[in-house]
From TrEMBL:
InterPro entries: Hydantoinase_B, Oxoprolinase-like. The gene is apc4_8. This is Acetophenone carboxylase delta subunit. It comes from the Bacteria. Residues 10-521 form the Hydantoinase B/oxoprolinase domain.
Length: 554
């Protein structure tokens, strides 16, 4: 018998409308990508789009988007409405902010919120988030700031549009405070266009179904989600599971301790980060909003991987962290490269739950390397772009990790041709790096190697943001760790969180880290090893060292 909800929709109706709402979010993402000016959005996917109902409850996200932005979105809308309440919003308003503690954890992301009006009242909200090329400040995006003020301006929630009229003060503020006006304002308006697409789509559904708002549909979506997750939680072992993970630190702090206790019960997951090390005086600290986002991510992938994300998923998650531990940095601590430590929330949690959920967790991944280059191309165009390269993906209990696949974030490296055209910095090589994944019954993914030369004829400023140069990606349940990351400029090894001046002709060479293996290497099948050898993923010498028993029969 079909389940019926309050009102006139049954579960089938709710499922159809749910899919329609998700498709609107996908249209928002498409609009943002197609109209964006910077490669961070257009090529690398450094954005997210979300829909909320009239009560600011999370309805849907676009299929393309980064988990950190999707995870911070629900607290972002709350933070905005705390300052500009719904009663002060009018049809045609658009609110923006890049406040790290309201938004995504650093100043470089712009959050754009549009209330959706139907029949004279708010029935929903569209929220988009994307990385901006510049927000003023000192040397620009990187890990070397000493406080948040050096990193750029922090704009509290303010109306960019008031009842459809552009706020010229805000536009002038950007023009006077950013280095790359066209890129920044172009991407800002792209976010607005995306919100407009979402608002129109939501209003179209209401008109088609003769609804006054989406509250009944939202309640149905949340009820179906809650029921499905409650059933799934019955299969998850209950108790408190703990882990400690050392992470390579910054100058003067060689290692930083991350610690979590995950309590699993019928109500979901509670994360307690007591024992985590303190903040540091570099721009790698993590506001709680970003930590919370990866707590949501871990719950989602472990318990509800096949359910479209919405409020009822994240309602199963709570967390606590001591003030000014590195995973709950308070203002005004610098947070520019908060992803370097924030991404470690996932392997920390997977390590805690490795015995409870061995079939669901993942061995450590090689993590993402980021370099932010700022300069002027041979054609005289100023640029400020991030290039992302991933290490190897961690293996699972029944699956090899993919080579050069990001995790836990899902940034896209982007075509080298686009990068070369926009910056005038050319790739000398970019290829998979054999023998860098960790051995195991299931093998970690390989990293990659690339070399990038400054061919602009001018000095280019580079900021590295990376890890895994000293502490490799761990293997799980007997699997071996992946290889370390190596970063060099003109052949000289370089601090993975350094800012450097690249002279004309200077070459950056990066060997990305491999993912950890899963399970005893002695259990890996000879057939898989033969396949790895044929595809060039491993060398014969590496096989002899890591799979000696199987090597004798190859």
């Amino acid at each position: 018998m079909t389940e019926t909800f309050a009102g006139h929709f049954d579960a089938v109706d709710i499922g159809i409308l749910w899919s329609r709402i998700v498709s609107i979010a996908d249209e928002m993402a498409s609009a943002l990508v197609r109209t964006s000016f910077s490669t961070m959005v257009r090529e690398s996917g450094d954005f997210s789009v979300m829909l909320f109902d009239g009560q600011a409850r999370f309805l849907a996200q676009g299929a393309v988007g980064v988990p950190s932005f999707t995870g911070t979105g629900p607290s972002t809308i709350k933070g905005i409405l705390d300052i500009i309440p719904a009663s002060d919003l009018r049809d045609g308003d658009v609110v923006i902010t890049n406040d790290p503690w309201i938004g995504t954890g650093h100043v470089y992301d712009i959050n754009v919120l549009k209330p959706v009006f139907h029949k004279g009242r708010i029935v929903g909200y569209c929220l988009t988030v994307s990385h901006l090329a510049d927000v003023g400040g000192g040397p620009g995006y990187g890990a070397d700031a000493r406080d948040v003020y050096e990193e750029g301006f922090s704009l509290p929630p303010i109306k960019l549009f008031q009842e459809g009229v552009l706020n010229s003060f805000v536009v002038d503020f950007f023009k006077r405070n950013v280095r790359f006006e066209d890129l920044v304002l172009g991407d800002l308006y792209s976010n607005v266009a995306s919100c407009n697409v979402g608002a129109q789509g939501l209003c179209d559904i209401l008109a088609e179904y003769a609804l006054d708002d989406v509250a009944e549909v939202a309640d149905g979506i949340f009820a179906l989600t809650h029921s499905a997750i409650t059933e799934q939680l019955k299969t998850v072992p209950k108790g408190t599971f703990e882990a400690v993970l050392p992470v390579e630190g910054v100058n003067g702090v060689p290692e930083i301790r991350l610690q979590v206790a995950v309590t699993v019960d019928e109500g979901g997951f509670h994360y307690d980060f007591t024992g985590t090390g303190p903040i540091v005086n570099r721009g790698v600290n993590v506001p709680i909003c970003y930590t919370r986002a990866y707590c949501y991510f871990c719950f989602k992938v472990l318990v509800a991987p096949d359910i479209p994300n919405n409020q009822a998923v994240i309602d199963f998650v709570t967390l606590a962290a001591p003030d000014n531990c590195i995973l709950n940095a308070l203002r005004p601590n610098p947070t520019g490269a908060r992803h370097i430590f924030g991404h470690y929330v996932a392997p920390l949690v997977f390590g805690a739950l490795a015995e409870a959920l061995p079939g669901e967790v993942q061995a450590d991944s090689g993590m993402i390397f980021q370099v932010n280059l700022r300069g002027r191309s041979q054609l005289g165009r100023d640029f400020s772009y991030i290039y992302f390269t991933p290490g190897g993906y961690g293996a699972f209990s029944d699956l090899d990790g993919r080579s050069a696949l990001p995790g836990p974030s899902n940034m896209i490296g982007g075509p080298v041709e686009v990068w070369e055209e926009d910056t005038g910095c050319f790739f000398l090589r970019k290829e998979l790096l054999p023998d860098t994944g960790g051995a195991g019954e299931f093998q970690g993914g390989n990293g990659q190697i690339f070399a990038l030369r400054n061919d602009t004829g001018r000095v280019v400023n580079g900021a590295f943001m990376a890890s895994r140069t000293r502490l490799a990606a761990r293997g799980f349940r007997g699997g071996s760790p992946g290889a370390h990351r190596r970063i060099a400029v003109d052949g000289v090894l370089t601090d993975p969180k350094a800012r450097v001046e690249l002279a004309p002709g200077a070459v950056i060479e990066v060997e990305d880290s491999g993912g950890g293996g899963f399970g005893d290497p002695a259990a890996r099948s000879p057939e898989r090893i033969r396949s790895d050898l044929r595809r060039g993923l491993v060398s014969r010498d590496w096989v002899d060292r890591n799979y000696p028993a199987q090597a004798r029969d190859l």
